[in-house]
Automatic annotation (TrEMBL):
<feature type="compositionally biased region" description="Low complexity">
    <location>
        <begin position="18"/>
        <end position="30"/>
    </location>
</feature>
<dbReference type="InterPro" id="IPR003439">
    <property type="entry name" value="ABC_transporter-like_ATP-bd"/>
</dbReference>
<dbReference type="GO" id="GO:0005524">
    <property type="term" value="F:ATP binding"/>
</dbReference>
<feature type="region of interest" description="Disordered">
    <location>
        <begin position="1"/>
        <end position="30"/>
    </location>
</feature>
<dbReference type="InterPro" id="IPR015854">
    <property type="entry name" value="ABC_transpr_LolD-like"/>
</dbReference>
<dbReference type="InterPro" id="IPR027417">
    <property type="entry name" value="P-loop_NTPase"/>
</dbReference>
<dbReference type="InterPro" id="IPR003593">
    <property type="entry name" value="AAA+_ATPase"/>
</dbReference>
<keyword id="KW-0547">Nucleotide-binding</keyword>
<dbReference type="InterPro" id="IPR017911">
    <property type="entry name" value="MacB-like_ATP-bd"/>
</dbReference>
<protein>
    <submittedName>
        <fullName>ABC transporter ATP-binding protein</fullName>
    </submittedName>
</protein>
<keyword id="KW-0067">ATP-binding</keyword>
<dbReference type="InterPro" id="IPR017871">
    <property type="entry name" value="ABC_transporter-like_CS"/>
</dbReference>
<feature type="domain" description="ABC transporter">
    <location>
        <begin position="38"/>
        <end position="275"/>
    </location>
</feature>
<keyword id="KW-0813">Transport</keyword>
<dbReference type="Pfam" id="PF00005">
    <property type="entry name" value="ABC_tran"/>
</dbReference>
Length: 277
């Protein structure tokens, strides 16, 4: 494979070597020493067993730096959603480790993992999954209610302001556009002030102009608020809003682009999609 201009093959080097004996983000005593928000260390995940087994992740080592925006791309079935779910503690790898801010998620019992997901991880999907009978403000307050807290008006107003919806607090989803509903979903994911926002195809259901607005907002959350975002997308234009793109093919790292342009992302994707299996 010929590397395009800024394709960094670091993923085939140290960063994706799979050695993982002293992962970045921890020292030998396990203390956090770097700015790594999430690290995957030789992660494997297989669905099913026997002849029907599908290896979705086949030994992925990757790290996501704090305060950065990463897009994850790859052909259909390459393992992107599985990667996101394992990184967010929604799914457990069969082997390898997922370390978030010094905490090894793979070693956590279910109760602790649930608390960590609730307090430190935000997740948004292509479908907005809002409660139709609740206003924007009430939808955003839900995670705080679930955590046994009474949401403060100012707290909710601040996060709605962060996503550009200060004037829609009292609106129900049916009175909002798709882009506005996705912003509410993001505000709901951000209200607990998570370390990382994981987004699986967040603009997949939006038209291109609305997508651009949402992506610009996400970019602003990284640049102005220091949020860490990891986003799966099929769209090279969406990926170009990220600081870097990591590519997967057949459950393995398949290259990386820093400061991506939509054209370079599309060209790399075309190479992956035409590569023999
Ligand atoms: N729950 C499951 N049971 C069985 N196989 C699964 C399951 N989830 C995913 N897979 C398989 O694992 C592989 C990776 O799936 P995954 O959804 O992570 O890929 P993806 O890159 O996100 O795909 P797409 O771009 O089509 O959404 C695929 O072959 C898929 O069919």
């Amino acid at each position: 494979m010929t590397a395009p201009g800024r394709l960094a093959d670091a993923m085939n080097g140290a960063e994706a070597s799979g050695t993982g004996t002293n992962p970045a983000g921890t020292n030998t005593t396990g203390t956090v020493v770097s700015d790594v928000a999430v690290r995957l260390d030789d992660v494997t995940r297989t669905y099913g067993s026997g002849d029907g087994a599908v290896t979705a992740l086949a030994g992925v080592t990757l790290e996501f730096a704090r305060g950065t925006f990463t897009a994850v791309m790859g052909p259909s079935g390459s393992g992107k959603s599985t990667l996101l779910q394992c990184a967010a503690g929604l799914d457990r790898p069969d082997s390898g480790r997922v370390v978030m801010a010094g905490t090894d998620l793979t070693g956590l019992r279910e109760t602790k993992l649930t608390l960590l997901r609730r307090d430190r991880i935000g997740f948004v999907f292509q479908s907005f999954n809002l409660m139709p009978s609740l206003t924007a403000e009430q939808n955003v307050g839900l995670p705080l209610h679930l955590a046994g807290r009474r949401p403060g008006k100012a707290e909710i107003a601040a996060v709605l302001r962060d996503v550009g919806l200060a004037d829609r607090a009292g609106h129900r989803p049916s009175r909002m556009s798709g882009g506005q509903q996705q912003r509410v979903a993001m505000a709901r994911a951000l209200v607990t002030r998570p370390d990382v926002l994981f987004a699986d195809e967040p603009t997949g259901a939006l038209d291109s102009s609305t997508s651009r607005d949402v992506l610009t907002m996400m970019r602003g959350l990284v640049d102005q608020r220091g949020l860490t975002i990891v986003m799966v997308t099929h769209d090279p234009v969406a990926a170009s809003y990220a600081d870097r793109v990591v590519f997967l093919a057949d459950g393995r790292p398949a290259g990386r682009l820093d400061r991506p342009t939509a054209e370079a992302v599309a060209a790399h994707m075309a190479r992956l999609e035409s590569a023999p299996c």
